[in-house]
Write a structure and sequence with these properties.
Helix content: under 10%
Radius of gyration: 28 Å
Strand content: 35-45%
Number of domains: 3
CATH topology of the largest domain: Jelly Rolls
Structural class: mainly beta
CATH architecture of the largest domain: Sandwich
Number of strands: 33
CATH class of the largest domain: Mainly Beta
Largest sheet: 8 strands, antiparallel
Shape: elongated
């Protein structure tokens, strides 16, 4: 079989990242969070054999990746994953040696199968990421680093193969392999050829379609890039309310707000002045002067071992209102609940000239903004749900917060 790969010498660099995956076409996903379970919901949980053991992942999280011992360590399924057309293999790996080793393989190792290996394609000790087709290896790229994590993606689209390492396309091919048949799905070794891997493997995902370049980049970048809007500092007068919000692109997120009162960040609970501690928007009701200079941040998780922590934002508590006389009770919303149209009524208008009103939806996105000109401002909002209205002073400091419910 003619090797039609376009070779590319490529120096690999290790960048810390978290795994975040698209779900369309997902056949199997192994985050290795304490086990070899398939969390895609398709039931392809792997069996453990020999010297494969849990170890820290690339971010230092204990028992969140698997180490393979170069002898007999393997994770496997008794049957192969049924792939008849386009596909994507995605895996994070860190090699401890330049010797041959199967990273992952699907199908019959000797004849009908496709996988990723680590050798030079000639049977000699290897230093190249290689497309493995049956018993033949097609080298992709010379690697120059060991003991470093790298993200490797093999994609097949209409018979065209692409290998991407750390978001860089390093090899393409138009070979025509036999489709996977009659074998197993294996990670760390294959049973027939017995080429064990030596190193760590994590976050293996298999798709029945070719992922886009953007999706491959998203797999590599992960959670560190999932916060799209960080919490902003807040200023509130003593006795008024303050809010901190975050917007994330993470799928199925859960939230935990934390407070640092000067001794380190601690988790908050929905008690006392705090509510919404497990949502994207933290509300502090009736701030006190003792909270001045407290810092707040949010830890975001999902079900795929994906964790991200926002930047911290400071709370400033003042003891005088705008022009010394503004009170949060000076703002009223009616009707509330509303059917999409409501009125914002401001008392003592002369004392807050130049202030403005901002309305955010439940995920913290700004959907309405206006300067205060008249005593009564009519607002129309499309959509339903709970919205947060903030009154800001001339320095864009929050001096009042109200909720409006749209039916």
């Amino acid at each position: 079989m003619k090797n039609t790969f376009l070779f590319a010498a490529f120096i690999l660099f290790c960048l810390p990242a978290f795994s975040q995956i698209p779900t369309s076409g997902l056949m199997a996903y192994y985050p290795f969070c304490g086990s070899a379970n398939d969390v895609s919901g398709n039931g392809h949980t792997l069996k453990l054999s020999g010297g494969a053991s849990l170890c820290p992942d690339r971010n230092g999280n204990a028992n969140s990746a698997y180490h393979f011992n170069w002898i007999d360590g393997i994770l496997y399924n008794d049957t192969m994953l049924s792939i008849t057309g386009d596909f994507t293999y995605s895996v994070w790996m860190s090699a401890d040696t330049i010797e041959d080793g199967i990273v992952l393989y699907n199908g019959s190792a000797a004849v009908n199968g496709i996988g990723i290996s680590f050798h030079d394609g000639t049977g000699s000790p290897g230093s190249k990421i290689t497309l493995q087709v049956g018993g033949i290896g097609y080298p992709v790229v010379i690697t120059s680093s060991r003991h470093q994590w790298h993200h490797i993606v093999l994609r097949s689209s209409s018979g065209n193969y692409k290998v991407t390492i750390d978001t860089v396309l390093v090899g393409t091919s138009t070979i025509v392999p036999n489709p996977p048949a009659g074998g197993k799905f294996e990670i760390g070794k294959d049973f027939v050829n017995g080429k064990p891997f030596y190193g760590e493997i994590d976050d293996v995902s298999i798709y029945n379609r070719a992922l886009t370049d953007a999706e491959v980049k998203g797999l590599f970048l992960g959670c560190g890039y999932e916060v799209t809007t960080q919490p902003s500092p807040a200023t509130a007068n003593k006795g008024n309310n303050a809010t901190f919000s975050v917007i994330t692109a993470m799928s199925s997120p859960s939230f935990q707000w934390q407070q640092d009162a000067g001794t380190g960040f601690l988790n908050l609970s929905n008690s006392g002045p705090y509510s919404g501690v497990n949502t994207n928007s933290l509300l502090i009701t009736g701030v006190t002067t003792s909270m001045n200079n407290y810092h707040y941040r949010c830890v975001i998780n999902n079900n795929f071992c994906c964790t991200d922590t926002t930047q911290s934002a400071k709370l400033t508590v003042t003891t005088t209102s705008v022009n010394n006389i503004f009170n949060e009770n000076d703002i009223n919303i009616y009707p509330n609940p509303a059917n999409g149209v409501f009125t914002i009524a401001i008392k003592n208008l002369k004392n807050i000239s130049g202030c403005k009103i901002i309305i955010n939806n439940i995920v913290g996105q700004g959907i309405y903004e206006t300067s205060i000109i008249n005593e009564n401002t009519e607002v129309k909002i499309d959509g339903k749900g709970i919205f947060m209205l903030r009154l800001l002073d001339q320095q864009n400091r929050t001096i009042a917060i109200k909720k409006i419910s749209i039916n």
